[in-house]
Design brief:
- By secondary structure, this protein is of the alpha+beta class.
- The protein folds into 2 domains: 62 residues, no CATH class; 157 residues, Immunoglobulins (Immunoglobulin-like, Sandwich).
- It is built from 7 helices and 9 strands, in the order H-H-H-H-H-E-E-H-H-E-E-E-E-E-E-E.
- The chain has a 4-stranded antiparallel sheet, covered by helices on one side. The protein has a 3-stranded mixed sheet with strand order 6-3-9, covered by helices on one side. A two-stranded antiparallel ribbon has the order 1-2.
- A hairpin with a 6-residue loop joins strand 1 and strand 2.
- Helix 2 runs antiparallel to helix 3, helix 3 packs antiparallel against helix 4 and helix 5 runs antiparallel to helix 7.
- Keywords: Signal.
- InterPro entries: DUF6759.
- This is DUF6759 domain-containing protein.
Length: 258
């Protein structure tokens, strides 16, 4: 009997611990926080009865925010987008395919502008010491600067002439518009959220290799042959490595090392 009680209490503790790791929506009916209410609609089960009350409330709060917002408020656009989504569906949660479609639209707009102007949207300053990441460890208050050891190679990759840039832009746009599953190539987009300029290396079978320079807090794209690749990079002094199968357009986001 004691063993049974001990087992039940252990299971209960594990269950409570697991619940504690999730979001607490016990007081959601009292909330007037747009972001908290929106998160509840995304996380809650489709048959959750509180949805019928929460959804109209958050929509009304969004309308009020938009009406009372100051001119130029950057949050208005996202509020309008979320409000439009809630009019059509049960929450603002989007699928992976929808997210990819949004990224694709932004990339098409970006490269169309570049092709029309002939100027790259990527800005960088050639330097052998610029863009160093300053790391502050938990064990010491001193800061250690990590030098940009790939600066020369980064500058060389970025310094394309107008004709090279135009050809690359046309190739990327063609890939973005191409939905042919039998195409031999597809686009890879790298989003660099770190404080350092980086070079992402993609190594495939045999001599198939690609390099892509991506500025700090920027993004860049490349069209590569479909296949299996080892993605590697030096991100602010930390090694990044990941095996990826590229059979359709993908986006890889890299951030500062922890």
């Amino acid at each position: 009997m004691k063993k049974l009680l001990f087992l039940l209490s252990t299971v209960l503790c594990i269950s409570l611990s697991a619940q504690g790791k999730g979001k607490d929506y016990s007081n959601i009916m009292k909330s007037k926080n747009i972001y908290e209410l929106n998160a509840f609609l995304r996380d809650a089960h489709p048959d959750e009865p509180r949805r019928s009350i929460i959804k109209p409330r958050v929509m009304q709060l969004m309308k009020e925010y938009i009406q009372n917002a100051a001119p130029g408020d950057p949050k208005v656009k996202s509020m309008q987008e979320n409000l439009a989504l809630l009019k059509r569906r049960s929450s603002t949660k989007i699928t992976f395919d929808e997210m990819n479609a949004k990224i694709r639209e932004k990339q098409i707009a970006k490269y169309r502008t570049e092709l029309a102007s002939g100027v790259s949207s990527i800005k960088y300053t050639p330097s052998t010491t610029q863009n160093v990441y300053v790391a502050n460890t938990a064990t010491t208050s001193t800061k250690a600067a990590i030098p940009n050891t790939e600066a020369d190679e980064f500058n060389m990759l970025m310094a394309s002439n107008p004709d090279e840039h135009k050809n690359k832009t046309v190739k990327i746009l063609n890939s973005l518009f191409d939905n042919d599953p039998n195409a031999k190539e597809c686009i890879v987009m790298i989003e660099n959220n770190s404080d350092c300029n980086i070079i992402v290396r993609m190594e495939g079978v045999g001599n198939t290799k690609y390099r892509l320079a991506v500025p700090a807090h920027g993004d860049n794209s490349i069209v590569i042959e479909k296949g299996n690749y080892l993605f590697t990079s030096l991100v602010c002094g930390a090694q990044y490595a990941s095996q990826k199968t590229v059979q359709k357009p993908i986006m890889v986001a890299l951030s500062n090392p922890k």
